[in-house]
Design goal:
- The complex is a heterodimer.
- By secondary structure, chain A is mainly alpha-helical.
- Chain A is built from five helices and no strands.
- Helices cover 83% and strands 0% of the residues of chain A.
- Chain A is extended.
- By secondary structure, chain B is an all-alpha fold.
- Helix content of chain B is 72%, strand content 0%.
- Chain B is built from 13 helices and no strands.
- In chain B, helix 3 packs antiparallel against helix 9, helix 8 packs parallel to helix 11 and helix 12 packs antiparallel against helix 13.
- The chains are: A mainly alpha, B mainly alpha.
Chain lengths: 117, 232
């Protein structure tokens, strides 16, 4: 391996690690000093989780929208999302609904969407 | 069974949903990197050292184009800047312990998916086991990421052997995972940050790259939660 390639990879790894570690380390020290944060700051950090998942979902679905404009594609997408919601309700957990949703999308794109007008 | 081992195993089991999503993406990364001209060892080093999905694909392009470190490193770090929020958000859920695990151990594997899964499940883990459980969760996700990358480097050029429906299904794993996670944490309870973050990210995608839209969507959703949610 070329030395400059290794250097870039390791610097990217170190930088990404520091982006994750330093805020966690700082927040932990702050939590030690005062066990309860001011309400608004606490709610800000509590909101990061749901906001991150929602933003990740929006961004991951965005790539499908040029295709979803076609009715058959849109039907496949809706079917797959409905399969996730239904299996979440009936089976529960995260792994199964994820698998069922992915398989539903694969099946819908291969066999259902082509059959639609 | 000692509590530490049990908590670690529970974390590993909880990581299965992430592993399902990571294997195909890491596989695609390994495949793309080798086909772009990186050696299998460099490809595995990227997954082992960086462990941050989308930015690794960007790093392939930067390395293959011969970018210098002062161009490549800030570009990758800018893309990963949203990870700054994850540690502080998780610390609230990790109760103070007399002998806490070292922070680097808890932080190394805080990817988008690990963070989202931890947030949705950590409250159901006994307080004293949460840090070890988080290490197990990260370990499972990291192992799946490395395994997927390795498989991608080994099976380069053979992706066409998969049937069409399986390739489509693999491509939809991440949206399915994120929707499952959203349903797991409770849409009704968090509707304000969810609506604001999703709408902001979707609108910003029209004018910004995905990683910037994502980071700004997270900030907008968290701010909405801070401003709008009534005090407990």
């Amino acid at each position: 391996m070329n030395r400059s390639v290794v250097t870039i990879i390791l610097l990217c790894g170190l930088g990404t690690f520091l982006l994750r570690w330093l805020p966690l380390w700082h927040a932990r020290r702050a939590a030690d000093r005062a066990s309860t944060r001011a309400g608004r700051w606490r709610r800000l950090f509590e909101g990061v989780g749901p906001a991150a998942i929602a933003a990740l979902l929006a961004v991951s679905l965005a790539g499908y929208f040029p295709q979803a404009l076609a009715p058959a594609r849109a039907a496949g997408l809706i079917l797959a999302l409905a399969a996730v919601a239904a299996s979440k309700r009936w089976i529960g957990g995260i792994a199964w609904p994820t698998l069922v949703g992915a398989l539903a999308y694969g099946v819908a794109m291969r066999w259902v969407a082509p059959a639609l007008p | 069974m000692p509590d530490v081992i049990r908590a670690l195993l529970r974390g590993l089991v909880a990581s299965l949903s992430i592993a399902v999503g990571y294997l195909p993406i890491a596989f695609s990364f390994g495949l793309a990197a080798v086909e772009a001209g990186l050696s299998p060892n460099a490809t595995l080093l990227i997954s082992a050292a960086v462990f941050a999905g989308a930015s690794q694909f960007l790093l392939i392009a930067l390395l293959v184009s011969g970018a210098a470190w002062w161009t490549a490193v800030p570009t990758v770090l800018l893309m990963n800047a949203r990870h700054l929020f994850y540690g502080p958000a998780l610390v609230n859920r990790l109760p103070a312990r007399t002998a806490p695990l070292p922070a680097p151990l808890l932080a190394f594997g805080l990817t988008d998916e690990v963070f989202a899964t931890a947030l949705s499940k950590v409250d159901r883990v006994p307080a004293a086991e949460r840090e070890t459980w988080l290490v197990g969760l990260q370990l499972g996700a990291y192992s799946a990421w490395l395994l997927g990358t390795w498989l991608g480097t080994r099976l380069s050029g053979r992706i066409d052997l998969l049937p069409d429906f399986a390739r489509d299904a693999l491509g939809f794993v991440l949206p399915a995972l994120f929707l499952s996670l959203l349903l797991e944490i409770g849409v009704a309870r968090w509707k304000m940050p969810i609506l604001v973050a999703a709408a902001s990210a979707a609108v910003l995608l029209a004018v910004l790259p995905a990683h910037h839209a994502l980071a700004l969507g997270i900030v907008a959703g968290a701010l909405a939660n801070a401003i709008a949610r009534p005090r407990a």
